[in-house]
Design brief:
Blueprint lengths: L1 H5 L4 E4 L4 E3 L5 H13 L3 E5 L9 E7 L2 E6 L12 E4 H4 L9 H15 L4 E5 L6 E3 L15 H9 L4
Parallel strand pairs: 3-7
Antiparallel strand pairs: 1-6, 2-8, 3-6, 4-5, 5-7
């Protein structure tokens, strides 16, 4: 939290280390997402993953050829730290430096829900960055079985584990 507070950028990209990117990112989509959140000051987060598509949402229209969806107030994990572009001024009031990222996802969702409508959480109807979760805070070890054999070979041959 202290790092975020000191950073001068209003928009930040948060990517945690608990997943494996399994295809190239849609760089054009990333640029469109950045433009959208830059122009829409009430957007707290532009989710770049598949996460919001799988949660309750509504379509809000199109922007530069991409379908935009908005997460509903009652969707789970409003404070999800799946890959996304965040508006720091809207984020900071909802995070506590005494919480782990996992605790913040759960407790922060409750805090966000109370004010949802003052801001929105949006995404495309398709992921900009595709990845597979390989670790979760509640697990004690990596879970590689969802990855392709080629990806597991790359991870182990490079000694990333």
């Amino acid at each position: 939290m202290r790092v975020l507070a000191k950073d001068s950028n209003e928009l930040i990209l948060i990517m945690l280390e608990d997943y494996w990117c399994n295809s190239p990112a849609d760089l054009a989509g990333l640029g469109i997402a950045y433009t959208y959140i830059s122009e829409n000051k009430d957007v707290l987060r532009f989710d770049l993953s598949y996460d919001r598509v799988n949660k309750p949402h509504r379509e809000v229209g199109r922007f530069l050829g991409k379908k935009i969806i908005e997460t509903t107030k009652n969707a789970p994990y409003l404070m999800s730290f799946q890959t996304g572009i965040w508006r720091k001024s809207l984020l900071l009031p909802y995070i506590l430096d005494v919480e782990t990222p996992q605790e913040c996802e759960i407790n922060g969702t409750d805090r966000l829900r109370k004010k949802y409508g003052d801001f929105s959480i949006v995404a495309f109807d398709r992921a900009v960055i595709n990845y597979t979760p390989v670790y979760r805070g509640h697990r004690s070890e990596l879970s590689l079985q969802k990855l392709s054999n080629e990806d597991v070979e790359k991870i182990t041959s490079e000694r990333w584990l």
